[in-house]
Amino acid sequence: MGEVILQMIDIDKRFPGVHALNKVSFDVKRGEVHALMGENGAGKSTLMKVLTGIYTKDSGSIVFEGKEVEFHGAREAQDAGVVIVHQELNMVGHLTVAQNIFIGREFKKGIRIDDKKMNEEAAKLFEKLNINIDPTATMSDLTVGKQQMCEIAKAISHDAKVIIFDEPTAALTESEIEDLFKIIRDLRKQQMAIVYISHRMDEIKVITDRVTVMRDGCYVGTLVTEESTKDDIINMMVGRIIYEEPKTKSRVSEDAPVVLKVEHLNAGRMVQDVSFELRKGEILGFSGLMGAGRTETARAIFGADPKESGEIFVNGKKTVINSPEDAVKAGIGYLSEDRKRFGIVVQKTIAENTTMADLGNYMKGIFIDKKKEKKVAKEFVDSLSTKTPSVDQLVVNLSGGNQQKVVIAKWLCKNCDILIFDEPTRGIDVGAKNEIYKLMNKLAAEGKSIIMISSEMTEILRMSDRIVVMCEGKKTGELRIEDTTQEKIMNLATRDIN
After folding, report:
1. In angstroms, rounded to a whole number, what is the distance separating the alpha carbons of residues 475 and 183?
2. CA distance 359 to 352
3. Around 257, how many Cα atoms within 13 Å sit in the side-chain half-sphere?
4. Burial 133-155 (b: 16+ CB within 10 A, else e)
């Protein structure tokens, strides 16, 4: 590693009711991959937004290449060589790869855009990164992994000196993650400084040189990665030790009543003849590789996607579910893996989101009874330990873990007895994960029944009473937790492949 290229010293930032950054310091060196970690709401994203000029700091200083700077917007930061590769990709689907990379700064020949020149320059960038992508391909035709590579190429095209990766692997497959790591290692060799924000502890140990931890808007400390353990980092993040022991015994008796029975469900290529039962108070894990059909099965049960055939029984009674409204009437709630798209309205308050699925019970004539709405929302904020100044806070201002709690509150407010949790802890840090796990166990103990879809093996083994495994749209097996190993799950998850 070379000398320090970027230093943030005693950065302070306040929002109404929140001290988001409290005298935070951070630095990154040339040729270094420096992880920035902390629970959701710790201040990581806010610190990077201050760096790139999206937010204005209240006090403190930023030193870049030996000079004190203050960027006024992301474009100014990019021009100086400080670039963010966002978790949510900012690509225009109908344009070509090259057009996306140079959007807003196109090469021109007279008054016309010079597509040939852009294709040539994009090809040079891909060659530099050892990436095999056709610059003339339409962006929407690429996989998420390839789109991520294009976003990196776009960052490099700004003559980047510092690249910030914000949860870069959240939507990538294992092979795409490997490709990304190769690129990051190449960038490190080229003396690029890289800030790596991630919740995935295993990745941190593989790809980073140092780790800086934040908690509650404060700097906690910096560790050399190879000299520290996973437990060291977790303890700094949450200020307490978290144990992730797998469940060894089901907490549900075999004669517990069946609350949901699905028979021979078919919905396109991704849901083929799926049958299973869910018992009262049970957490039924759904495991499988990406594209196994787990989410498609959940959406078909919930009525979000059309079914071709199959029957659904709720509490022993055959139930026709053709829409989410039918599912909610039957007492089924669905927490989507994409909570911002399907779970919450981020520009509305916690109170408004909490009562959204049960609004009829909060009406006074043609008006919403705001006092009643806030009272109920406050009860759920307290019972779920949601971190917020008040129920009037906009959901967009909450951390990922707290947004997830608002979605859960919405379905609890509707009093749904069957809850489908699709990737319940995606994009959530280890501390918030633990809170969600405790909450799910508490709900199950109170008699709620949960289907939990998860791509994390440790999560499946820690939470499930039974496990359904899927592969390429089919159920390939069902395991009792007492008899389950990672190897057994993976054998079933790959049964139909090849």
Report:
1. 36
2. 9
3. 10
4. bbbeeebeebeebbbbbbbbbbb
- Please, where are the H alpha helices in 367-418? 370-384, 400-413
Integer Rg of the chain from CA: 24
Residue 437 CA: distances (Å) to CA of 430, 442, 469: 10, 9, 21
Q: What are the DSSP E strand ranges found in 42-106? A: 59-64, 67-69, 82-85
451 touches 419 (CB < 8 A): yes
Q: Say how far apart CA 351 and CA 332 lie, in whole Å.
A: 21
CA atoms within 13 A on the CB side of 365: 1
User: What is the largest distance, in Å, between two alpha-carbon atoms of the chain?
Assistant: 78
User: Which pTM value belongs to this model?
Assistant: 0.60
Q: Which of 286, 339, 42 is nearest to 170 (CA)?
A: 339
Listing DSSP states for 212-270 in one string gives EEEETTEEEEEEEGGG--HHHHHHHHHSS----PPP-S-SS-TTSPEEEEEEEEE-STT
Bridge partners, 13 (sequence order) = 21
In what order do the strands lie in the sheet containing 466-471?
A: 332-335, 418-422, 449-453, 283-287, 466-471, 474-480
Nearest to residue 290, comparing CAs of 377, 460, 174, 427?
174
For 411-468, the DSSP string reads HHHTT-SEEEEESTTTT--HHHHHHHHHHHHHHHHTT-EEEEE-S-HHHHHHH-SEEE
Q: Are 55 and 46 in contact (CB under 8 A)?
A: yes
Each residue's pLDDT, cut to its tens digit, for the chain (498 residues) gives 679 999 999 999 998 777 899 999 999 999 999 999 887 678 888 999 999 999 999 999 999 999 999 999 888 998 899 998 876 567 788 889 999 888 888 888 888 888 899 999 899 888 877 778 899 999 888 877 788 788 888 887 878 899 998 888 766 677 778 888 988 998 899 899 999 998 777 788 899 999 999 988 999 999 999 999 888 887 888 776 555 677 889 999 889 999 999 999 999 889 999 999 999 999 999 998 777 899 999 999 999 999 999 999 999 999 999 999 999 999 999 988 776 677 788 889 999 999 988 888 888 888 899 999 999 999 989 888 888 889 999 998 887 778 888 988 888 888 789 999 998 887 676 777 888 888 899 999 999 999 999 988 888 999 999 999 998 899 999 999 999 988 889 888 877 444
Could you say which DSSP state residue 394 is in? B
Chain-centroid distance, C-alpha 198: 10
Judge residue 277's burial from the number of C-beta atoms within 10 Å of its C-beta, 0-12 exposed, 13-18 middle, 19 or more buried.
middle
CB atoms within 10 A of CB 319: 18
The domains found in the chain, sorted by start residue, are: 4-238 (3.40.50.300), 258-493 (3.40.50.300)
